[in-house]
Structure formats: C-alpha cells, structure tokens
C-alpha cells in the first residue's frame, strides 16, 4: 500500500469538488431547458445485465479521515434477487444523458398530446385547443388513463419509439413488457391499450394491425385462473346496526353524518362515489310526501356523447334511524355548513368545508362501512344493494332502470353476486308425485281425445 500524504489527500478532495461542480452544472442546464427531454437526446441504457460497479480499497488515512470502519465497495456474489433490487433502486453510473425515473415527470407534460394534435395539417389553433382540452381535462377517464400513459412515456423514451406514431408491434411489445416485468393483469393491460392510443396521431392507420394486440390480450386472459361467477351473500346487518347509532341530527359531527348519508343514498339509489360527488344540492327538494328528489349531473355516463342529468326520487323509511330523507335534511341544515349557502355539492370537505371534496374520500367512506360486514376486498355498495334488491323480489328491469345500465347483462356480469338457483330442483323434478300427476293428466287428456273422436265419428254417420 502506497503512502498517502496530506498533499495527495488535498488533491483528491479538489478532484471531488470539481466533479461535484460538473454534476451540478449538468443538473442546472437540464432544469433550465425542459425541452431537452426529447427522445432523440437520450442514449440507450448499457447492455449489461447488471449495473457497473467498481472495487476500491481505501487507504488507512482516508478511512481515518472519513470515519470508515469497512470498505466502501465490496464485490460479493450476488443472487438474482439482489441484482434485481440493485437495478430497481440505483441509478446507472454511466450514460449521464439518460433520464432516470426520478426526473421523468419533465416528460409527463401536455407536449406529448400537443405534438400529436398540433402536427395534423389544416387544423387551426382554436381546433387544436378544443381537441387538446378534451384530452387534458380532469375527467374520470383521463385520470384512469394516466398511469398507463406515464408508463408508456417512460418506455418510449427508453426504446426510442415515436410517441405519436408508434405501430401495433410497439403496443404489443409495451404490453408484454408491462406484463412480464411488473405483473400487470390482462384487464389492466386492456386499459393501458386504450390509454396509449390517445397519443397516436392517426389511429385509423392501426386498424389493420390491432388484431395482434387483441390476440396478445386474449392469450394472456386465457392463462388467468378461472374465477367464480357466484359470490356469497353479504349480510349487511352489522353495517346497518352501526349506522343506527349515528343520529340523524344537526348535532352529529359532520364527518359521521356525511358517511351515513353517503351510504344510505348509495344503497337506495345504486350510486357510485362519483355519482354521490355530483349530486346537485340546488336541485334537491322535499315534496309533500316527504320524498327526496335530486339530480345528478353524470360525469361518466353519456347519451350521444353528451352528459346526462339523472333524476332520483328517494322514499322515506319507517325506521327513522335508517331514513335517508331525514339524514339528508340533517346534513343540509348542519351548522358547519350554514356559512356556505352557495355550495352546490351535497358533500363537502369536513376539515375545510370551503375546499372541494375528492371522490376518493367518498370511496373511503363507503369502504369503511362495508368492511364492518365483510372482509372481502373490492366490494362495491352498488353490487351489494342491487343483488339484495333482486333477492328481495324487485324486478330486474327496475334495477337496471334505476341504475341506468344499458341492459341487464351489465348487471348480471359485473354486479350480481348470487348466481346459484334458489329453487329445489331435486324435489320438483325427481318427485314421484309430480310424475304420477303428469301421467294422470296425460291419461285424462287421452280419454278426452278418444271421446271427441267418437263424437265426431257419430256426427259423420
């Protein structure tokens, strides 16, 4: 080991300072020019299976000055799991022009959409703005698409794929990578397919090749283990008993009163969280029959590409503790909301009523109520309520109409829980009494036929 002097240590420290200055300069230049995230400026990742590492044994003086009690870098034999962890958690050492994921949000901008819309010839600025606003609005569909679009942006940068002119083969490669690298299911991949097609400048050019994408998704779906179409009946009595303890009064804390109102309205009107969020308080009214009427300006459901206004009528319940009308009145007249007479939404932010309420908060309310009755995951109030209505004898047509589903197949495939018959087919079909009665009826029928034939023959004579 060579001797390490004070002068050599100072020289090493100066070199480290110069390297740090160069790195800071590169970061400042990148922040000053956000357009530098164009895919043509990024070099590909190195082709090694693991990231490069270096072996270095520091001198005793360095270990003493920096307080090192062990080597900085070691070179043990790594397992596959350790290599995967290193790749996922550490940035590459080489290729300084590569954009690591922690600064990738620079690419998550409307420029990807603008480049697709703005490059279409003969489109005015106004037309481009209208088309762009629809893609960038904070709608439920765009929020659902966002995850897949971010992943595709990162994937396209790494593979040098044109974000606005990719091919069907690129879609297949992207979906395959998402499935094998991150384990996304076929249903999530179908959502990714729809989300990334919004980037394409000319989606019609892909029509003749999309069968490759559909074939991939169908193949992955067939590999998924079978699912049970019948789900057990959920007894919501524990949830209802809990709700009874929450008084429908203006003295009840606002968070509890809002949870109770949301659950009762979701049960009686089959409303999803986004529907509860869109209840127009100005349209709500209590008629002479103590019936609650209100309107929901649906953000997801459309007719001929236009949003619809869905009216609802909620009838009172003889059980006052479970009456949605009385709970609504208590929430409407709550003292915490008396200073916000211009508020158009029924549900507000409990901590700060002047701030808008997120739909995810209503979803959390409903999930907490359902969790009291069942430990099953991903259970919606609409599924419980609609299945309970069918089991109690409400016609399926009325259930479909109330929820505004297109047809009954939507209810049967996605919301109906019980798919087991309730009739005793064994007793009905294998009963000797039913067989005897059938034979007797058949014999009586044959005798009647013979008498009619005899009477007809006598008339002919």
Could you say what the CATH topology of the largest domain is called? hpI Integrase, Chain A
CA gyration radius, whole angstroms: 34 Å
What overall geometry do the principal axes of the alpha carbons give? globular
The poorly predicted ranges are: 35-54, 67-75, 93-109, 454-461
Summarize the main sheet: 3 strands, antiparallel
SSE order, one letter for each helix or strand: HHHHHHHHHHHHEEEHHHHHHH
The share of residues in extended strands comes to 5-15%
- CATH architecture title of the largest domain: Orthogonal Bundle
Key traits:
mainly alpha, about 50% helix, about 450 residues, 3 strands, three-stranded antiparallel sheet, single chain, hpI Integrase, Chain A, DNA-binding, 4 domains, Integrase-like_cat_sf, globular, DNA binding, about 5% strand, 19 helices
């Amino acid at each position: 080991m060579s001797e390490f002097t004070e002068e050599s240590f100072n020289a090493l420290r100066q070199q480290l300072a110069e390297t740090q200055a160069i790195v800071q300069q590169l970061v400042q230049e990148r922040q000053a020019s956000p357009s530098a995230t164009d895919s043509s400026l990024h070099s590909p990742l190195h082709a090694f299976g693991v990231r490069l590492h270096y072996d270095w044994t520091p001198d005793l003086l360095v270990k003493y000055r920096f307080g090192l009690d062990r080597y900085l870098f070691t070179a043990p034999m790594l397992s596959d799991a350790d290599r995967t962890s290193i790749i996922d958690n550490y940035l590459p050492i080489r290729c300084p022009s590569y954009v690591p994921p922690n600064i990738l949000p620079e690419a998550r901008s409307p420029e990807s959409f603008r480049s697709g819309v703005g490059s279409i010839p003969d489109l005015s600025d106004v037309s481009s703005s209208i088309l762009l606003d629809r893609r960038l609005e904070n709608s439920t569909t765009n929020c659902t698409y966002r995850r897949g679009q971010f992943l595709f942006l990162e994937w396209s940068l790494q593979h040098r794929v044109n974000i606005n002119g990719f091919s069907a083969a690129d879609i297949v490669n992207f979906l395959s990578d998402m499935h094998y690298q991150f384990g996304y299911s076929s249903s999530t991949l179908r959502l990714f397919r729809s989300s990334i097609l919004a980037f394409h400048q000319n989606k019609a050019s892909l029509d003749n090749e999309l069968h490759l994408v559909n074939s991939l998704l169908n193949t992955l779906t067939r590999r998924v283990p079978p699912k049970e179409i019948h789900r057990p009946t959920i007894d919501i009595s524990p949830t209802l008993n809990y709700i009874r303890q929450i008084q429908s009064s203006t003295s009840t804390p606002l968070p509890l009163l809002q949870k109770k109102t949301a659950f009762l309205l979701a049960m009686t009107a089959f409303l999803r969280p986004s529907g509860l969020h869109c209840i127009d308080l100005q349209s709500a009214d209590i008629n002479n029959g103590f019936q609650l009427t209100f309107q929901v300006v649906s953000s997801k459901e459309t007719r001929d590409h236009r949003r619809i206004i869905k009216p609802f009528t909620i009838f009172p319940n003889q059980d006052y503790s479970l009456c949605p009308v009385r709970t609504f009145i208590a929430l409407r007249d709550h003292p915490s909301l008396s200073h916000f007479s211009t508020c158009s939404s029924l549900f507000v932010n409990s901590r700060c009523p002047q701030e808008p309420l997120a739909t995810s908060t209503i979803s959390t309310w409903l999930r907490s109520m359902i969790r009291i009755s069942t430990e099953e995951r991903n259970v919606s109030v609409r599924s419980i309520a609609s299945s309970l209505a069918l089991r109690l004898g409400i016609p399926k047509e009325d259930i479909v109409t109330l929820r505004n589903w297109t047809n009954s197949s939507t209810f049967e495939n996605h919301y109906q829980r019980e798919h087991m018959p309730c009739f005793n087919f064994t007793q009905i079909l294998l009963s000797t009494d039913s067989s005897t009665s059938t034979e007797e009826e058949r014999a009586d029928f044959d005798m009647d036929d013979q008498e009619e034939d005899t009477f007809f023959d006598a008339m002919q004579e």
